[in-house]
Amino acid sequence: MEELWEKFKVNTGLQRLLIFALLIFVLYLVRSMIDLILLTFIFTFLITRLEKVILRWVKVPRKLIVIVLYILIVIFLYFAFTHYLPIIIGQIVSTFNGVMKFYNNPGNNDFIKYVMSLFNDSNVKAYINSGLKFIIGSLSGIGSIGISFFMALILSLFFSLEQERVVHFSSKFLTSKIGPVFREIAYFGKKFVGTFGVVLEAQFLIAIVNTVLTTIALIAMGFPQVLTLSTMVFLLGLFPLPV
């Protein structure tokens, strides 16, 4: 047994292959919690990056920055749910009613009538109904998503506050008897952060900049329901569709 273990420690390729398979198996076992794990990673990663940016310009204790950032997040969520969410819902309803009113009464313009006839031929109403059913079905899971969101926020707060202790505790596994296993896990973790994390950060910044510029343009052009359109731009910017 010891001889096999020594050969395993020497064969790096085999180690990574087996440990990668083990990680996939573990993720499969905890697939019901994958949203919580992913949200916790996203919050922790973004807060850590923002914290490092602030520390470049302001020399204050790191934990103080973390606490202030999470307080700002809580304040933002409070105003978002108590003030802006009802406005957005009202604007969504108004936008939907306006679209349906235009669809049912397109007017006397020949071009618009031609376009609407194409819509009727393509059975757009059936697609709209199926889309509404999908949205209603998705809304039924908002409660569980909200709980996962809240728990991920709390877990990321604890991790951010105790980052030094967590890193110090985790580093002890690297020098233990099963150190080779944890070194490979750390290797995959660094690869994951270096790829998905960087893409996430870039996509988040792109979505913010795109939303700000689009909102300014919409306000300048006098568009109604700006909050709804800006929210759609931000959410769709976070999840770009493939071309």
Automatic annotation (TrEMBL):
Keywords, in A-Z order: Membrane, Transmembrane, Transmembrane helix
Main location: membrane
One Pfam assignment: AI-2E_transport
Coiled-coil regions listed: none
Signal peptide from the UniProt entry: none
Bilayer-spanning residue ranges: 20-46, 67-93, 134-159, 192-210, 216-239
GO cellular component, one term: membrane
Membrane-topology descriptor: Multi-pass membrane protein
InterPro entries listed in its UniProt record: AI-2E-like
Location(s) in or outside the cell: Membrane
Family classification: Belongs to the autoinducer-2 exporter (AI-2E) (TC 2.A.86) family.
The protein's name in its UniProt record: AI-2E family transporter
Organism, as annotated: Listeria grandensis FSL F6-0971
